[in-house]
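Give me structure tokens for this 225-residue protein.
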Amino acid sequence: MPLKDLPPDARPREKLLARGPGALGDAELLALLLRTGIAGTSVLQLAQQLLDQFGGVAGLLHAGADDLKRVKGLGGPAKRAELVAVLELARRALAQQLKERQVFDSPAAVKDYLRLQLAQRAHEVFAVLFLDAQHRLIALEELFRGTLTQTSVYPREVALRALHHHAAAVVLAHNHPSGSVAPSRADEALTQSLKAALALIDVRVVDHVIVAPGAALSMAEQGLV
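Here you go.
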């Protein structure tokens, strides 16, 4: 059933305009993007099914285009494109925050940004946030990719990219496809190795963030940086 066929007081758009977005549930907001359901499933039911399948709004935002393509009702490109566009807007909004203020001012935004970028990868990715002297974001770069179990990271390459960006500090980041964000001994050793290498060019390692679907851990907060 399309939204226009719902009773007026049940239409999410009219409800949003009359009472504000806070009056809508997650499924109603998502239904506004989807607009129509599929045979035997109303748009609100489809929205709720998507939320259930991906573990709520946060999980859905971390879903990739390929994940959405496998969902019944999202086989066409239009709806997938809209959802992926929302994801990209969320990434850009968080990136803008980090470029305008010190990362220390918004540690939650750093974690959210990195989760949006890395959490759903099927393989390990090692990335670096390059920061200026005020610890504002200059750029995020994915420098190394590995298998499901390990990533080869070369301190020399990280140092070269830091020099390229004239970075004063960095936040290291990688994902754990296994779902656990607990740092391994190898993660701790890598952090110390990169700290030592970057110290030679006067670049500070601010943090090392580990992300997984639904979670993120700051090694600095754990006293491991």
